[in-house]
Amino acid sequence: MHHAQSIARLITELGKLPGVGPKTAQRLTYHLLNSPRENSLALSKAIREAVDKVTYCSVCSNFTDIDPCFICRDEKRDKSIICVVEEPGDIVAIEKTREYKGHYHVLQGIISPIDGIGPEQLKVKELLARITHQPKDNLEVIIALGSSVEGEATSMYLAKILRPLGIKVTRIAHGLPVGGALEYADEVTLAKAFEGRIELF
Amino acid sequence: MHHAQSIARLITELGKLPGVGPKTAQRLTYHLLNSPRENSLALSKAIREAVDKVTYCSVCSNFTDIDPCFICRDEKRDKSIICVVEEPGDIVAIEKTREYKGHYHVLQGIISPIDGIGPEQLKVKELLARITHQPKDNLEVIIALGSSVEGEATSMYLAKILRPLGIKVTRIAHGLPVGGALEYADEVTLAKAFEGRIELF
Fold first, then answer.
1. Between the N and C ends of chain B, which has fewer C-beta atoms within 10 Å?
2. CA distances from A3 to A80, A171, B50, B144 (A)
3. For residues A60 and A53, what is the distance between their CA atoms, to the nearest angstrom?
4. Which residues are CB-neighbours of A96 under 8 A, at least 6 positions away?
């Protein structure tokens, strides 16, 4: 025992964060103890408030502190496009492009039999439920999942259940990243880039 | 604005921690929101309790939640040796060796004119105060500071004010790290290793 009890406890709790080992946890603890009291308490309060207030949006399953979330409430967004993503962080990444003006749906995971995650563990029935409430002839579901085996399997699964409902299902392009040199691209990415080639006008 | 308010606030507060950039702050925030509620609240509570309870030991200036700290209270430790360190974390490192059984004194910094830190900003007068209360003929002060210019200057300063009081002042050895190969040692370390050579019996 090299620490006072409340210091040891803080090191333990910080050490539970992803990517924070014992040394980093100790460094962060000393930082919090050396910081002005109100700064450290602000972090404590922010955690408590986020945990108390944040819930899942009843429409898109994104994190929100007001239900429905600010994207689902936004009347200016296009209700006829729903972009399906794995996690809330993916929405942040897409929003930063400032290109997409449709709605989202967060699956909260992808199908992964090895981890025991099937469609029932994901927000798939919530996706189907919200779709039943809107006209399907003009609806497009864009699947924006990673190109891992699990991502591909989840995309296929969603396409299989959505297409019979008369919904247009697309998925984002996989290919050469912008600024990426051809010679350094891996073969799978390059194969996808050829497969997804488009005609020039 | 890509986040709900209380999520944005938590990302901001986590982003103030050293070594935590905006992306890591977002990842940690989502981790806390995805974790069981009681785990995240445990971190919030641990921060608040540490900030509320932890103070500086009135004897050695180490962080503690009971004054004097558990090391200064320990009757089994040798009161005739005081090891001077820069920060509380240094004590943890030395305690892990399980070799040192004396007391400590935390300077809470080192002399660094460029940062405006002189002896007055450090816990030097507290060191002198505790020394006046004990017999000086048998007392040893071990200076365990880094070998940076500031560390050396602080060591020299302490030796200069402690020696006239009849106190034995030593400093930890600088040299080749155990397991370190001679050919990869930098020249300053190697020079120190020669300077600090000891006779073999």
1. C
2. 58, 53, 12, 19
3. 17
4. B2
Distance of alpha carbon A178 from alpha carbon A158, whole angstroms: 28
Largest CA distance in chain A: 71
**How far out from the chain centre does Cα B87 lie?**
2
Residues 6+ apart with CB under 8 A from B126: B61, B105
Please say whether the beta carbons of A72 and A59 come within 8 A.
Answer: yes
Q: What tens digit of pLDDT does each residue of A34-63 get?
A: 999 999 999 999 999 999 999 999 999 999
Q: What is the pTM of this model?
A: 0.81
Q: Determine contact: B22 vs chain A, CB below 8 A.
A: no
Contacts of B88 in chain A (CB under 8 A): 30
Domains and CATH numbers, chain B: 5-53 (1.10.8.420), 74-199 (3.40.1360.10)
Q: What are the pLDDT digits (tens) for B60-106?
A: 999 999 999 999 999 999 999 999 999 999 999 899 888 899 999 99
Distance of CA A25 to the CA centre of its chain: 27
Q: Is A149 on the interface with B (CB under 8 A)?
A: no
- Is there a contact between A43 and B47 if contact means CB atoms under 8 Å apart? yes
Could you give the CA distance from residue A64 to residue B7 in angstroms, rounded to a whole number? Answer: 8
Q: Which two tokens stand for residue A53?
A: 């207030």
Q: What is the largest CA-CA distance in chain B?
A: 71
Beta bridge partners of residue A102, listed in sequence order: A78
Are A28 and B6 a contacting pair at CB < 8 A?
no
CB neighbourhood size of A42 (10 A): 17
Strand partners, A84: A105, A143
B residues 154-173 near A, CB within 8 Å? none
CB contact under 8 A, B96 and A2: yes
Cα angle, residue A101 at apex, residues A196 and A130 outer, rounded to 5°: 90
Q: What is the ipTM of this complex?
A: 0.81
As a whole number of angstroms, the distance between CA A107 and CA A124 comes to 7
